User: Fold this.
Amino acid sequence: MNHSAKCMAASLALSVTVWAGTPAKADEARNRAAGEAMAQELCSGCHIIGENQSGPVPDGPAPFPVIADRPGRTVGYLEAYLSSPTPPMPHVPLSKQEVDRVIAYIRSFAE
Ligand code: HEC
Assistant:
């Protein structure tokens, strides 16, 4: 391979990587934003849903950033929990897409 062919190959590989990376990241950002709006609507009556918020309910259920930092709060755990929560956490009926979104939002505090 001559020099310019190598350059071509390198820049092709680079653009493929960038291209492959972008849509997933954009999806995740969209999911988080949608999850935040959902959390505001459906969960904020009980949970503090963001950082630097002080509650209407100081001794209420754990704030989302606290939940995200607990050990073992994986996507799998959160999916299972939301489909059969422990009382007094109510079962909130959500579609698969809504569950993905609200979990993407909660998990965003763990990073
Ligand atoms: C009516 C009040 C209420 C609402 C509304 C509510 N929660 Fe909860 N949630 C609780 C309580 C109380 C607990 C703690 C239950 C326990 O003691 O195990 C809890 C626990 C949780 C946990 C488990 C925390 C852990 O570390 O195991 C998750 C995850 C959670 N809630 C997510 C949500 C999401 C997402 C929503 C909105 C879709 C929501 N909650 C709406 C009251 C509520």
